[in-house]
Design goal:
This protein has 190 residues and is mainly alpha-helical. Helix content is 76%, strand content 0%. The protein contains nine helices and no strands. Helix 1 (2-37) packs parallel to helix 6 (123-135), helix 1 packs across helix 7 and helix 2 (48-62) packs across helix 3.
Length: 190
């Protein structure tokens, strides 16, 4: 009788995990679709985003840093990896690639947000936390601008998730993500 109860509990647990994974996937996909729908593909990136763009282009084309006064160049260096892989005819396509990378990173952040929430709350509340993050309007807008926030939030969230691990080796890895966040934005120090 006990063995049958354990089997039914295991089946119930697997079903709940599958439902949770399905709901999290739906939240991720809908969040990405909303972000991609609101992305302005025909407008050049301006202000801070354009200086990050120019820095990334210089790194990918020239192969070294030039005379830019960007204190924290984590985002342009990350972008330059993609600029080296993809080759386009005009600069607006590179800017759109920058926006799409930012959108994807913002969408991927839903997963570590869910896992951090899961450390403290039930599955349903954790899904609610991931949903709030996925559909928060300011985060959606920032992800479509192609600026540093998406990568910064992703690195900080991964750092927090790994820091909450019981395994000390994984916890030490979290400091690497915090250091990466500091390279991306100076607020990572705090």
């Amino acid at each position: 009788i006990i063995l049958e109860e354990n089997k039914s509990d295991l089946k119930r647990s697997l079903l709940i995990q599958k439902k949770t994974a399905l709901l999290l996937s739906i939240i991720f996909l809908v969040g990405i679709i909303i972000r991609l729908y609101h992305t302005p593909y025909d407008i050049p990136i301006i202000l801070d985003g354009s200086s990050y763009f120019l820095h990334a282009v210089d790194i990918s084309i020239l192969g070294y840093l030039t005379n830019y006064n960007l204190e924290h160049s984590g985002w342009p260096e990350f972008l330059s990896l993609f600029f080296m892989i993809f080759h386009f005819d005009n600069f607006i396509d590179y800017m759109n690639l920058q926006r799409i990378i930012s959108v994807i990173l913002s969408g991927l952040t839903v997963i570590p947000v869910y896992l951090v929430c899961r450390k403290y709350f039930d599955r349903y509340y954790s899904l609610a936390g991931a949903t709030i993050f996925a559909f928060e309007p300011r985060i959606i807008i920032n992800s479509t601008l192609g600026i540093t926030e998406s990568l910064y939030i992703f690195a900080i969230t991964l750092g927090i998730l790994l820091f909450l691990s019981l395994n000390k080796k994984i916890m030490f890895l979290s400091f690497g993500f915090f250091a990466w966040a500091t390279i991306i934005r100076s607020e990572g120090q705090f």
